[in-house]
Design goal:
The chain is of the alpha/beta class. The protein has a single domain, classed as Molybdenum Cofactor Biosythetic Enzyme, Chain A. The longest helix has 21 residues.
Length: 167
């Protein structure tokens, strides 16, 4: 079972000016795979708040996958990639590259996508677009590799533990 947390990054949704549609759409897509949604939250486009939430969730040891939606464009307040890069231990560029390549088949605006993917501890963090359709389509495009990624991260923790014991 893959445990998932979904973080919507949007000033307007946080202030309840606009309903969060992307987070619930991602929740439905993950539940269709029978993945366990363990947390959902909406935060403003503030780098410190985003980073703190990503750290708390990934350091909890209870979440395999964090999906973020929003804040990945060119607007001045779009800081999700910077918040993610500040807290990850390793990049996972293949996922971001694959999503951008896929999105380019839909729209040339995909060239403006700045989302990143990375690993903190044993948690995979994936930045998805804020548009609900784009968020779900990108998630569905990479979903087939996520169970293997989660397994590798889980095994890497076990291998690291065994390596330390053998010393």
């Amino acid at each position: 079972m893959i445990s998932v947390a979904i973080l919507t990054i949007s000033d307007r949704s946080f202030m309840k000016i606009r309903q969060d549609i992307s987070g619930p759409a991602l929740k439905n897509a993950a539940q269709e795979l029978q993945w366990d949604i363990v947390a959902m939250e909406v935060v403003p486009d503030e780098i410190t708040i985003i980073s703190q939430k990503l750290i708390a969730w990934s350091d909890s040891g209870k979440i395999n996958l964090i999906l973020t939606t929003g804040g990945t464009g060119f607007a001045p307040r779009d800081v999700t990639p910077e918040a993610t890069q500040a807290i990850i231990h390793r990049l996972a560029p293949g996922l971001a590259e694959a999503m951008r390549a896929f999105s380019l088949t839909k729209t040339p605006h995909a060239m403006l996508a700045r989302g990143v993917c990375g690993i903190r501890n044993q948690t995979l963090i994936v930045n998805l677009p804020g548009n609900p359709t784009a968020a779900v389509e990108n998630f569905q495009f990479i979903q087939m590799v996520i169970p293997h990624a989660v397994e590798l991260l889980s095994n890497s923790a076990e291998s690291e533990f065994h390596h330390k014991i053998k010393k």
